[in-house]
Amino acid sequence: MNQPVLISGGGPVGLFVALLLGRAGVGVRLFDLNECPQNDPRAATTHPGTLEVLGQAGLVEDMARVGLVAPKFQFWDRPSGRKVAEFDHGLLAGLTPYPFVIQCEQFKTAQLILERLRDLDNVEINYGHEVIAAEQDGTGVSLRVRGPAGEQTHRGAWLVGADGGRSLVRKSAGIAFDGFTWPERFIVLTTPFDFEAERGYCPRSYFADPDEWCNCFKVSADGPPGLWRTVFPTDPAASEEALLSDAAVQARLQRFFPSTTPYEVVHRNLYVTHQRVAASFRAGRILLAGDAAHVNNPIGGMGLNGGLQDAANLVEKLVAVIGGADQRLLDLYDLQRRTVATEFVQTASIGNKKRLEERDPVVRERNLDELAQIAADPARAVQFMQNSAMLASQRRAASMTLQEAA
């Protein structure tokens, strides 16, 4: 009997790897410390480039059902209250079958994948199991796992590390995680206040401000009317207690979006934010995907998208290798997905942050004018959106060959 592929990490990326492998007839054994997928309020935006991948797996229709379709996004100048630019994904209709974004919280995506995994007898999902060690040799990999029955060792042919930014799998493989950590933490405040009805903001809106930029976007939550998440930078010197206090939270929202009544805040959290890419996405029989391989700031919503794209790319090549193809295909996975992470995601997410926080008044105005000009020119808008929608990066990765991986 062939050894299974082992997966560490039961978030959306690890589950998507399991689903695609399982459907290809490959045995899978997945482990995750948590008892179930985490109801994490972070990643929600799913770009057209990722919807293409998810559509092939039959997930898009259900994601639209439990999430919300957002065809447009806007840039605003917060000090003046001016809408600088609006981009409509409808312009991409000839380039992708999904000319829109779906706002679907990551725990919903995970649940949709889990529902499909229940039909696969060759996939074993083990929540409540902590991976505590990983080793490999010439013929396979071994995972030491602590679960309800105590510690056990599991043997597999390959190991996929989809276990987050602090990945034990990556560390066990001795792979460096190069990059930096932003000095300021990001605060996420979630409110039922309807910014679209009350302020005219669309479900994906970005606010440039030299003192305190903001992302404001809508999720469906448990159904109409949905919730709005606002993301702000914070003072690196301020304590968590001070930043998350009722008074501070209310003052932040009122300062940015003045209202005659207090905001109802149903969730608040503070995040340390990194920009890092693993030195390699492959070490022998150990492969990395998602946050284990790359992390970035959330402006533009590219993190989980990149991870789901990793999963599809990796599985395509791993299935071929299991079927007898040259193992160098996995080096091509590393080349293609590291290129996307470094040339596109890191560059774009850092650029998005700098655009929103720019303080030099001349540079600020130049940046905002350029956005307005791009939005007003359909040809330039299409090019801009191919990048933001992660279509250009997917096309670039697909064009790379084994010769380039040599």
Task: Sum up the structure in keywords.
alpha+beta, FAD/NAD(P)-binding domain, 406 residues, single chain, seven-stranded mixed beta sheet
Shape from CA axes? globular
Spatial strand sequence of the major β-sheet: 6-5-15-16-17-14-18
CATH architecture of the domain at 5-67 and 103-180 and 274-356: 3-Layer(bba) Sandwich
The averaged pLDDT comes out at 96
Assign the structural class, choosing from mainly alpha, mainly beta, alpha/beta, alpha+beta, or little secondary structure.
alpha+beta
Roughly what fraction of the amino acids lie in strands? 25-35%
Number of helices: 14
The CATH homologous superfamily of the domain at 5-67 and 103-180 and 274-356: FAD/NAD(P)-binding domain
Produce the secondary structure layout:
Elements (H helix, E strand, L loop, with lengths): L4 E4 L3 H12 L4 E5 L12 E2 L1 H9 L3 H7 L1 E3 L1 E6 L4 E7 L12 E3 L2 H12 L5 E5 L2 E7 L4 E7 L2 E7 L1 E4 L6 H5 L4 E5 L4 E6 L3 H5 L4 E5 L5 E6 L7 E7 L6 H5 L1 H11 L10 E5 L2 E5 L3 E2 L2 E3 L5 E2 L7 H20 L6 H29 L3 H16 L1 H11 L2 H9 L2 H4 L1
Parallel strand pairs: 1-2, 1-12, 2-8, 5-15, 12-21
Antiparallel strand pairs: 3-7, 4-7, 5-6, 9-10, 10-11, 13-19, 14-17, 14-18, 15-16, 16-17, 19-22, 20-21
Helix pairs in contact: 1-4, 1-9, 2-9, 9-10, 10-13, 11-12
